[in-house]
Amino acid sequence: xxxxxxxxxxxxxxxxxxxxxxxxxxxxxxxxxxxxxxxxxxxxxxxxxxxxxxxxxxxxxxxxxxxxxxxxxxxxxxxxxxxxxxxxxxxxxxxxxxxxxxxxxxxxxxxxxxxxxxxxxxxxxxxxxxxxxxxxxxxxxxxxxxxxxxxxxxxxxxxxxxxxxxxxxxxxx
Length: 173
Hints:
Blueprint: E1 2-4, E2 15-19, E3 24-28, H1 33-52, H2 59-76, H3 87-98, H4 110-123, H5 141-168
Antiparallel strand pairs: 1-2, 2-3
């Protein structure tokens, strides 16, 4: 497979080719090590983008792209720091995320879950934003007495209607 980058005006074209049969990488237009590394990183990012896409290459093409990406990753870091995790490690991580617990990790108790939720809530409290010119309403004593009289009158009226309804509806025993 061949990857090429369109060169900027006045610059040479950098090409990185990966052959999977002998597993070798050929460079064209890459004079320095930095140019080779840049070409490999560009090709690797392109391959990763294609592999992560929801649609596109067939399974056969995906396997070929994955092999090519592994060759490029091993070339970039021979100490395997960039090589993808093996399937068993991925399974351990995904099992922890999905809730399947290993024998070493026990399920947290109801109290532990409650305490952790409370700690999270306290740590991530939402502060209510208030207008800078906002001031809470202040009532005078006369206004408070008037509000209380209105409330008491409303409650008395509701009680009167409730008693009237109880008188109208016969109680069947």
